[in-house]
Specification:
heterodimer, A: 792 residues, alpha+beta, Aldehyde Oxidoreductase, domain 3, Aldehyde Oxidoreductase, domain 4, 3 domains, seven-stranded mixed beta sheet, six-stranded mixed beta sheet, 29 strands, B: 160 residues, Ubiquitin-like (UB roll), DNA polymerase, domain 1, 2 domains, 16% strand
């Protein structure tokens, strides 16, 4: 186990952070309750679109235990509205107020806050606030929102179309000739992240020092810090954001929310700690949602299966606001950026339109754009395979970017470094025993069962560096991160990062990297993050960057420490650094019996200063180094599923699920397997169960976990995961990101599996999630009223 | 709003008491009045199961109960699962088999599994999955959790 002999990276090790979670000693935001804390509750809009004519808060202000009631108009001077800025041409901004004033734009938008001695008392007072609304016509469908006479979500924007992005590569005038043209409209409905820990935060303000501290359930303490400074008009060095343990995020906790600004402003106003922890209803109403796209796609292929051209026209329903700081384009742009996937696509044109509606904002969610992109692209590939009579695996193999073509620049400018695109497919087929699976499918079909096999192949860009903005034109420094490594005089190591964990196991994974670099046992390394007061400048964790950027920074800082350690040791042992060997927290002279020194003694010498150090050497044993992977690196995978559609209930049961991915050098297989399994689970939910639904007036119909169905243990398969480990040549350590991967491939594979199962009935579903209801309706529309009698 | 009432209960083997309004949730009472923050609140409508505790030996959702209803009861929370610093076999198995990621559902998951193994000490995978449908996990896909519960069951049966 933890030997310190440089072999921890790659080891299947149980996680360092688990003991506190297993014993109930984690410190999530709601577990922190300083003395004199006040509790906030938000009054939330009942209408999807309405003018606020008047608010009567007198009774609420007189309610027991109430310290303050603040309306949107009263909040406005205390906190600037957040504007997700971008240099994209034609982009229309949609300022997000901390509390809505004058108008509300979606059901659940906060328009007043009550601060009281307890959450119970705050909620009592909420009921005593009277609001006079003038309801306005709401628009809840993105296509309808594009109409010239559609009601405007933001009057001052002049249009609901917030931004359009277009790509063109190759010739489409006229479209390139091809033997077969496949057209389809794909629809991926709205999804919710559902971290089991709902969002929440607690703000403390010290009027003596002027320092504001926000404890928040966020993935990105660094981004929240910058946002609070900007919107509360505070110098950035007086804002501290702490995210201790975070109970899941999945992208939805990577944005800065108006509640975080409002709670901070309230604490500053009242000079007492103010806490807000959302309940599940608030979470479903207001936490940024995912997907919600219409993709009109066309694939042109030749008889031999070669892809000639691809087009995609994407409408993204981004809800009421352009999410901060990522902007409205982040989800739909990634659909078109990644549509060509792992394939050679010589001609590609695409358009993405981000359209405002009177629904909760969408934002980054695990996979960001790529689950819908893979769903559409892989659906097109399977349609082509069926029409051409080519096996879907073979058709993919003919079109994957080949080994000799890396680095491969895609039609949208993304650069794929060498990765196992083809190898992932081969490994998946081998693990599935593809020919045997097809034979079994035939046997089961002959027995009258609706069995399908589906594939989902994709490539994502992970660990993006400074050359690739997280969203076009966005001003967030998303491409760099740093590590600070400090060896104290007792010989133990603190490794401090700007990336933060919300469940991924970074305390262990980054600890393994640091321990290897420093040649010390894992238990001597304590990984710290999640507090902007002591972490190096950074943003946080999103976009599958933790292992790549954190790991790369750890290697760079580790090298500095290791080099200095050796120079000091050589000085103390009166030898040359090159003559030293290290391991287990000690260094010794190669072949020099007994001449050894402990890291502790080296560190003591380092802090003792000139007396014990080589002439001119700076004292101390601490380094901060930044890392920029520049482009980022490819993470490809192929998912395969074998499933059954029940003839009686239209429910889908997964029989087998296989993933082969290339996530580069694996730091800890236990953790990476868990990321894939958990990612697949969310993809399965998105493919079969989960859908955020609004009615035409913009009322949320899925406001509880009884209506929004998160998969439970009986609904999910055991996932067989295989890693190819083609070390990335373009990242330090060879790491590729693995956090989002599982969620990208699953919807595509499952949709294709269901289409394969229903192929004997001539049905080709193009809408997700494929709930039993939706499969039934698809059959009914096609004249197959009962699957039970659908087959002759 | 009614007057607070005095509540006495045994929690993790210790006599505890406090004052609570009749409307105060048991989960809030445990977390904020008794300082036992290991019990988590994930939905407040009885679906996610993160707040699961043992009430008189049986799994109960502390977000669907009032503190006054637990007056006089014997409770066990996640803080009581390890004894004297020694982890329970379920905790060890969750650790070994990666039955947790963010850790937020973990206390509820462990308490539900503890209750389940008491009733069914030798479960099949299907039975484990059915039983654990009482608690939602968003991180793991349940695979590690199911493995862990099976491993813990095996170990607990073979323990002297």
């Amino acid at each position: 186990m933890a030997t310190g002999d440089g072999k921890l990276v790659g080891a299947r090790m149980r996680r360092v952070e688990d003991r506190r979670f297993l014993t109930g000693r984690g410190t999530y935001v709601a577990d922190y309750l300083p003395a004199r804390t006040l509790h906030a509750a938000f009054l939330r809009a009942e209408h999807a679109h309405a003018k606020i004519l008047a608010i009567d808060a007198a009774a609420a202000r007189a309610s027991a235990g109430v310290v303050a009631v603040v309306t949107g108009a009263e909040m406005a001077p205390l906190a600037r509205a957040m504007v997700a800025a971008s240099t994209m041409p034609g982009y229309k901004v949609t300022p997000i107020p901390a509390l809505a004033a004058g108008i509300v734009r979606y059901v659940g938008e906060a328009l007043a806050a009550v601060v009281a001695e307890s959450r119970y008392l705050a909620e009592d007072a909420l009921e005593r606030i009277g609001v006079e609304y003038e309801p306005l016509e709401a628009v809840t469908d993105a296509s309808a929102a594009l109409a010239a006479d559609a009601p405007l979500v933001h009057e001052e924007a002049g249009s609901n179309l917030l931004v359009t992005r277009e790509f063109a590569c190759g010739s489409f005038d006229p479209p390139p000739p091809a033997d077969l043209v496949i057209k389809e409209r794909f629809r991926f409905h709205r999804h919710a992240a559902i971290a089991i820990e709902p969002r929440g935060c607690l703000a403390e303000y010290n009027p003596g020092s002027g320092e504001l501290t926000l404890h928040s359930s966020t993935q990105c303490p660094g981004l929240v810090r910058s946002a609070l400074a900007l919107h509360l008009d505070l110098p950035e060095h007086l804002v501290r954001v702490v995210a201790a343990d975070v109970g899941g995020g999945f992208g939805a906790k990577s944005s800065t929310y108006p509640e975080e600004v409002a709670v901070a402003a309230l604490a500053r106003m009242l000079e007492r700690p103010v806490r807000w922890v959302s309940d599940r209803r608030e979470d479903l109403l207001t936490t940024s949602q995912g997907w919600d796209e219409i993709i009109d796609a066309e694939l042109r292929v030749n008889h031999d299966g070669t892809i000639v051209a691809l087009s995609a026209d994407v409408i993204g329903d981004i809800g009421a606001y352009s999410v901060y700081p990522w902007t409205a384009v982040i989800e739909p742009i990634q659909v078109v950026s990644f549509m060509p996937g792992p394939y050679r696509v010589p001609n590609y044109r695409a358009r993405a339109r981000a359209v405002a509606t009177n629904k909760a904002p969408t934002g980054p969610y695990r996979g960001v754009g790529r689950p819908p992109a893979a769903f559409a692209m892989e659906g097109l590939i399977d349609r082509a395979a069926r029409r051409l009579g080519i096996d879907p695996v073979e058709l993919r193999m003919r079109n994957f970017v080949r080994a000799e073509e890396f680095p491969y620049k895609t039609a949208t400018g993304i650069v794929w470094d060498r990765a196992g695109f083809i190898e992932c497919m081969k490994k998946t087929c081998e693990a599935l025993d593809y020919p045997a699976a097809r034979a079994e499918q035939e046997r089961m079909r002959a027995a009258g069962r609706l069995i399908g096999i589906g594939f989902g192949s994709y490539a994502e860009l992970t660990g993006i560096g400074s050359a690739t903005p997280a969203a076009p034109g966005m001003r967030v420094p998303a491409g760099t991160e740093a590590a600070t490594i400090r060896v104290d005089p007792s010989g133990t190591v603190s490794a401090i990062f700007g990336v933060a964990s919300h469940g991924q196991g970074l305390e262990t994974a980054l600890g393994q990297v640091v321990a290897d670099e420093l040649e010390v046992p894992l238990e001597d390394v304590r990984v710290r993050f999640g507090d902007t007061a002591f972490t190096p400048y950074g943003t946080g964790s999103y976009a599958s960057r933790g292992a790549v950027l954190g790991g790369g920074a750890a290697i760079l800082a580790g090298r500095v420490i290791r080099d200095k350690t050796r120079r000091i040791a050589a000085h103390l042992l009166e030898t040359e650094p090159a003559a030293l060997e290290a391991g287990g927290g000690e260094l010794w002279v190669r072949g020099g019996a007994g001449r050894r020194i402990k890291l502790r003694d080296i560190a003591q010498a380092a802090y003792a200063g000139a007396k014990r150090l080589p002439r001119g050497m700076e004292p101390g044993l601490e380094a901060t180094v930044f890392y920029d992977p520049y482009y980022g690196t490819a993470t490809p995978a192929t998912h395969a599923v074998m499933l059954e559609v029940d003839r009686e209930t239209c429910a889908v049961r997964i029989l087998r699920y296989v993933v082969a991915d290339d996530c580069g050098r694996v730091i800890n297989p236990l953790i990476v397997d868990g990321q894939i399994e958990g990612g697949v689970a969310q993809g399965v939910g998105g493919a079969l169960l989960e859908e955020i639904r609004y009615d035409e007036a913009g009322q949320l119909l899925t406001g509880s976990l009884m209506d929004y169905l998160v998969p439970g243990a009986p609904e999910l398969p055991n996932v067989e995961t295989h890693h190819l480990e083609a070390e990335s040549q373009v990242t330090l350590g060879g790491f590729r990101g693995a956090g989002e991967s599982g969620t990208i491939g699953a919807p595509a594979a499952i949709a294709n599996g269901i289409a394969d199962a229903l192929a004997p009935l001539g049905l080709e579903p193009a809408e997700l999630p494929l709930t039993p209801e939706r499969i039934f309706q698809l059959c009914a529309r096609s004249g197959v009223y009962r699957l039970a009698t659908g087959l002759a | 709003m009614a007057e607070p009432r005095k509540i006495r209960m045994t929690v993790n083997g210790q006599a505890r008491e406090g004052w609570a309004e009749p409307r105060r949730l048991l989960a809030d009472f445990l977390r904020e009045d008794l300082g036992l923050t290991g019990t988590h609140i994930g939905c407040e409508h009885g679906i996610c199961g993160a707040c699961t505790v043992l009430l008189n030996g049986e799994a109960a959702r502390s977000c669907l109960m009032l503190a006054v209803q637990a007056d006089g009861a014997e409770l066990m929370t996640i803080e009581g699962l390890a004894r004297g610093g020694v982890l329970h076999p379920l905790q060890e198995a969750f650790w070994e088999h990666h039955g947790l990621q963010c850790g937020f559902c973990t206390p509820g998951m462990l308490m539900a599994a503890y209750d389940f193994l008491r009733v069914n000490p030798d479960p099949t995978e299907e039975e484990i999955r059915e039983a654990l449908s009482a608690v939602l996990c968003r991180c793991t896909g349940y695979q590690g959790i199911v493995r862990a519960v099976k491993a813990a069951a095996d170990r607990m049966r073979s323990a002297p």
